[in-house]
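Task card 7
Instruction: Convert sequence to structure tokens.
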Amino acid sequence: MLGFLVLLAQAAIYFAAMVAIFHYRTVIGIGVFYSVLGAMHFLETYLAAVFFIELPFGLISPGSTVMFAGKLAFFLLLYIKEDAESMRQPIYGLLIGNLLMVVLAVILRAYSAPASLPGYNPDLQFLDQIGFLMVWGTVLLFVDLIAMVMLYERLGATVISTIAGRIFVSLAIVLSFDQVFFYAGLRLLSGVPISAFYGGWIAKIGAAGFFGLMLTLYLRFVEETAPRARPQKAADVFDRLTYRHRYEKLVERVGRDALTGLRDRGQFDAKGPAMLRVASQSKLPVSLMMIDIDHFKSINDRHGHLQGDQVIRTVVDTIMRTKREADELFRYGGEEFALLCPETPPGAVALAERIRAAVAATPHSGLDRPVTISIGVATFPADARNFQDLLMRADAALYEAKTQGRNKTLGAAAVGQRSAG
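Output:
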């Protein structure tokens, strides 16, 4: 029982620490996440080779069961939330680093007379063993991750529609494969008993369940942007996703509004339908807010276009501060903006009202009156079944808000009820 609690505590601490580092990757940089993975690689391999806990179903290594299984799970999270290009960089780094370690160790082995120190001398046999296991383990990791990505995508295309199911099955299959081949190398080097194979395999399936559940909860309740749900074909997944990522970065630079830095109408027309497709598969709502600056023409006429440009920038800054992190703001045209809100809770109109109130409360130097906005809100799938209808319903709600005197927020459902009445 104590051994099981030790493994569970390790898994919980490992997940909590790594998920916190991953979550703040946009603040501290993804390189911190890579470095932590690399720093633990030696300890993980060492424990997998020499440290075992005896449980009723066999010998269990924390290095293999907790740290390696957790590392695979976080590589899968990296793929889901970033892309294959980001995922493969640390794999190449680990492989090259381990090969370099072996080369340097071989050079040191050629020197047969290291200085003798009191109480401890270098264990060159251990260096040979751990070097082999680290290289062998990293080669397996490379194969594991390619197989895991292909399984994850293929399962989504043909068998399992839920993120939780795809994560668990992908991890369980790949960890089973890895257990066979890593144990073979371990058996060859140190004669580890067969109970370590069976015990390790059972524990890894349990680890797949634990880490799969924790990743699913994290994706559902912590990460606000929806994970990529549309399945990819399995063949050449690394190359295709790498070039897709580079292409999207190029499009990101091109499709920007010069005044505000927001993505433009073309980006909105592409992003909106794509977001609805993801929402349709994940059974989550998406809200669209159409936002218009009230009486903007009079600001340009009375104060000039430079002042009008400053008003637009200030309004955009206020919306960006008030919206949720996952919400995406576009300049639709002139003084009109579109805000796409994935996984919107029932209070989409309440969120729009907070944005409206924040803009109304923001001062503008050089103006003798506050600047206000009107907002129309529509939600998929409650108000519309496709993107064009969603845009039409949100635009109709915006028009009604302006008709009622501006500086208002109206939802499509309320406008529909008023029309019916």
